[in-house]
Amino acid sequence: MSLTIAGVELPSRLILGTGGADNLTVLAGALRASGTALATVAMRRLDPAAGGGVLDLLRALDIKVLPNTAGCRTAAEAVLTAHLAREALGTDWIKVEVVADDHTLLPDPVELLDAVEQLVDDGFVVLPYTSDDPVLARRLEALGSAAVMPLAAPIGSGLGIRNPHNLALMVEDAGVPVIVDAGIGTASDAALAMELGCDAVMLATAVTRADDPVRMATAMRLAVEAGYHARGAGRVPRRWYARASSPARS
Amino acid sequence: MITVHVNGAQWQLPAGATVAEVVARLTDAPRGIAVAVDADVVPRARWASTPVRAGARIEVLTAVQGG
């Protein structure tokens, strides 16, 4: 069940975002239940009044930190944010998000390619959040991305996998891990992502904003495992007509 | 005194104030923090030796729940 990104082996194929949780106690429970080994954080202006503590929590749970560039609209902003994250957190890993607008939060592919190119040059392990376009994923990989992170649906929408065919095409071509990121609503969405052959699933809202985040984190852990094994086991072909599973009566 | 912008707010600082002094006014536990002055990262090792000039735009960032 382990996942290798840029030569680093992670014991779980579920990546959790830490955003949206009501408090750190709930987040801690969800992180534990998810079994994740990698979790994202955002970089924001220091608020002297804020408690903070997410980094301490991740350290205590032995979960690797993956900073993101959430909120960035241009390649220049994303590159600066990545450098600040490296300085603040001491990690070369960066989840690059460059979004086009506030209501869809869809990736801006032109700015994204530019940011990824610069960050690979600057020695980062780059994990771009991308649309579900197989051609764009190929371009991101060619630039040196360590993984590609296509959306299932817009961030926080919980709409599930809108274009399974595109994800399957992406998986077929990819030489780096394909991590479905954003839009997962419930456990069956995560299982489907894995059944399509994706290497991992990243989600936040589906867990942190569920009525019971800890229980949903458990569901997501099991779903990712189930989908991974189902993919490996090889599903039966779909048939138009029935095929008896009991011997015919003679 | 000089005027600088720290995380979008106007601050008055004595001339010759350093990045380290700006950070110290925001927090006494500067772990997991990074600073950019005019969109250039100032590495922690240089905070104490980097003066801020009048009109500088200083961003002091940290990690928060997100993603």
Descriptive report:
The complex is a heterodimer of chains A (250) and B (67). With 250 residues, chain A is an alpha/beta fold. Chain A has one domain (3-231): Aldolase class I (TIM Barrel, Alpha-Beta Barrel). Chain A contains 9 helices and 10 strands. A 5-stranded parallel β-sheet of chain A has the order 5-4-3-10-9. A 3-stranded parallel β-sheet of chain A has the order 6-7-8. A two-stranded antiparallel ribbon of chain A has the order 1-2. The termini of chain A are far apart. Chain B has one helix at 19-26, and strands at 2-6, 9-13, 33-37, 40-42, 57-65. Chain B contains 1 helix and 5 strands, in the order E-E-H-E-E-E. Chain B is mainly β and 67 residues long. In chain B, strands 2-1-5-3-4 form a 5-stranded mixed β-sheet, covered by helices on one side. Helix content of chain B is 12%, strand content 40%. The longest helix of chain B has 8 residues, at 19-26. The chains are: A alpha/beta (250), B mainly beta (67). Chains A and B meet through strand 4, strand 5 and helix 3 of A and strand 3 and strand 5 of B. Strand 4 of chain A pairs antiparallel with strand 5 of chain B.
Q: What is the element layout, followed by pairings?
A:
The complex is a heterodimer of chains A (about 250) and B (about 70).
Chain A: E1 3-5, E2 8-10, E3 14-17, H1 24-34, E4 38-45, H2 54-60, E5 64-67, H3 75-89, E6 93-96, H4 109-121, E7 125-130, H5 134-142, E8 149-150, H6 164-173, E9 179-181, H7 187-195, E10 200-203, H8 205-208, H9 213-233
Parallel strand pairs in A: 3-4, 3-10, 4-5, 6-7, 7-8, 9-10
Antiparallel strand pairs in A: 1-2
Chain B: E1 2-6, E2 9-13, H1 19-26, E3 33-37, E4 40-42, E5 57-65
Parallel strand pairs in B: 1-5
Antiparallel strand pairs in B: 1-2, 3-4, 3-5
